Structures are given as structure tokens and as C-alpha cells.
Amino acid sequence: MAEYNYFTENDFKTAFPACSMDDMDAEFMEKLDLAREIATVPFIVNSAYRTVEHEKENGRPGTSSHTKGIAVDLKCTRSRVRYRIIYALIQVGFTRIGIGEDFIHVDDDNEKDQQVIWDYYE
Hints:
Layout: H1 9-13, H2 26-39, E1 45-47, H3 52-57, E2 71-75, H4 79-91, E3 96-99, E4 103-107, E5 116-119
Parallel strand pairs: 3-5
Antiparallel strand pairs: 1-2, 2-4, 3-4
């Protein structure tokens, strides 16, 4: 298992659903780790790797970037922290960011639209 400056196996065991760092793409994790360094705020992983079965059981088609180990949802409830996280993600080259009320989604899926920021608000 690769070692990172800011992430440990425990960060992924407490995610929902629980997963392992071994489920995550190493290049994705290296970029995420660098973004965490730049942001200077904690990156709390709400969700990371999800199986296709999990996605389908929850009414999704199973094509999420989470199923490839190249996406995470990071807990975020404060605007200043949201800014620091998004700024850092962009600085390291992430181009797909989703903003929810209490989380930020980031993925590195080159099979989907690039240079997009979306929200989950209704």
C-alpha cells in the first residue's frame, strides 16, 4: 500500500461505504494528497470507493467515478474551508468538482466532461 502525507487507511474505513486505500487509484491519491497540503485544512473523506453493486442498490446506474477509485466526497460545511479545498484541488490539476451543501466531490475521470464545476442543490 502506498503511503501519503495526509491520508491513512482510517480515512477510508470511516467513509461510507467503508473501503480501503487499496481501492483507490494511486495517481488520484497523490494529487489529492498534494491538494490537502496546499489547502492547509483537513480533508475528511465522507465517501470514496463504491462498488457498482452499492451504486445500483442506491438507485444509481453504477457508472460513478467512485466505482473506479478516482473520486471522493470531502466533508465541508464552512465557506472559508470550501474555498481552500476548491482552490487547492484546482491548483493540483483537478478539473471536475461538484459542490454540495455539506461536501465537495472531486474526481479525475477523463472519460467525462472536463473543466466543470457543478452543484447538488435543487
